[in-house]
Design goal:
With 92 residues, this protein is mainly alpha-helical. 82% of the residues lie in helices and 0% in strands. It is elongated, with a radius of gyration of 21 Å.
């Protein structure tokens, strides 16, 4: 978890978001620091809840799609997509 935080904190895209995009949502006469912290808390809360939903859905889908016929269909679909990509690259 610590490595994920460090990676995210050092990510220039996150810094860009917080320095360029976030200030646009702070009203003109609002206290800057407390409003920025509130918006940051909202952003982090939404991200955590969204990633938790993805993790739960991924675990369920992995069990469902990882065995039998669904797996074969996924592998066939991926194979066809990769062959189509290779054919389009060769056609250039």
């Amino acid at each position: 978890m610590k490595e994920g935080f460090i990676t995210n904190a050092a990510n220039p895209a996150i810094a860009t978001f917080y320095f360029i995009v976030l200030p646009q949502f702070i009203p003109a006469h609002a206290p800057i620091v407390s409003t920025a912290l509130l918006l940051t808390a909202v952003h982090v809360s939404l991200a955590v809840s969204w990633h938790a939903v993805w993790a739960a859905a991924g675990g369920t889908l992995a069990r469902t799609l990882g065995a039998g016929r669904p797996r074969r269909i996924l592998e066939l679909s991926a194979g066809v997509a990769l062959l189509a990509l290779a054919a389009s690259l060769l056609a250039r």
